[in-house]
Fold:
Amino acid sequence: MAQVTGIGGIFLRSRDPARLAAWYRENLGVPMSDKGTVTFHWVDHMSEDNPGTTTMALFANDTEYFGEPGQRAMLNFRVDDLRALLTKLKARGVEVLPELEDSEFGRFGWCVDPEGNRIELWEPADGM
Structure:
């Protein structure tokens, strides 16, 4: 049967791809190339306790969850220590949103990249 087997990528428009790639590399540790690309291989980072999943979710057009109304997509990065990362980002002058959310899925926090894109940071609950 012909079907989708996973999310192949996330693509963002950028006014300055090289600068934005450097920001993601330096602040979030995303190992982006100078051309602004990275491929994650979940099998390298998964275990029985940590399956390394990626989620696709649809939101209503009028959602406020993404931040600015013009933002058509939001990145969600899985992180290993949300509080430590948020502290590091604040120290670097990155805009970190004050709210945190705890749920059965784990803990969530948000920051904003230099082009105004709201980014969700997710520390998964045990077993996720």
